[in-house]
């Protein structure tokens, strides 16, 4: 598998094009402002797009999903437990006393505006396919030559997923907002749960082969071995 990363201008989301030797590819985490660069890469590299995936349903990982899916003529794919977020990306982030409109006009709205996007421009994808994977359960997903294992990793959201491409030592874990270099995803947003995240870190992440490389949803790449050694949330 080959990887090409486009960093979104909104919250620095890592959008990754995963391609197989034969040219089939999928796009993972289409954050706001990545569509043109991803389409250009797919065209210039002569790739055959098969799907736009999301590690979870937060809007900073799905903003350009509909636009990319339309332009590449592919479906949007994510865990069934997070599919509801695609219809109401700001409402699904609401806290008691903090409405989606406030989120849209706050830091998230400001970041979108800086990237030339407006909250009212968001479009729900038309073609959506879902899968189900319980905590720690691996489901093989295949699109032509692209084969990923989707591993349920709830806690950040109900449907947070790790995508494993390749094999330990010769592949990567696309960890979304479950695992970062030196940290982990927050659990204080609606659908997040600290106890569930703790179980995911203990029973799923910490049991990954240390030889895996890791590309988080934000920030620099790391390895499972490094995180097991230095990440305070994986200690013990």
Automatic annotation (TrEMBL):
<dbReference type="Pfam" id="PF00753">
    <property type="entry name" value="Lactamase_B"/>
</dbReference>
<keyword id="KW-0378">Hydrolase</keyword>
<keyword id="KW-0479">Metal-binding</keyword>
<dbReference type="InterPro" id="IPR001279">
    <property type="entry name" value="Metallo-B-lactamas"/>
</dbReference>
<keyword id="KW-0862">Zinc</keyword>
<feature type="domain" description="Metallo-beta-lactamase">
    <location>
        <begin position="12"/>
        <end position="218"/>
    </location>
</feature>
<protein>
    <submittedName>
        <fullName>MBL fold metallo-hydrolase</fullName>
    </submittedName>
</protein>
<dbReference type="InterPro" id="IPR051453">
    <property type="entry name" value="MBL_Glyoxalase_II"/>
</dbReference>
<dbReference type="InterPro" id="IPR036866">
    <property type="entry name" value="RibonucZ/Hydroxyglut_hydro"/>
</dbReference>
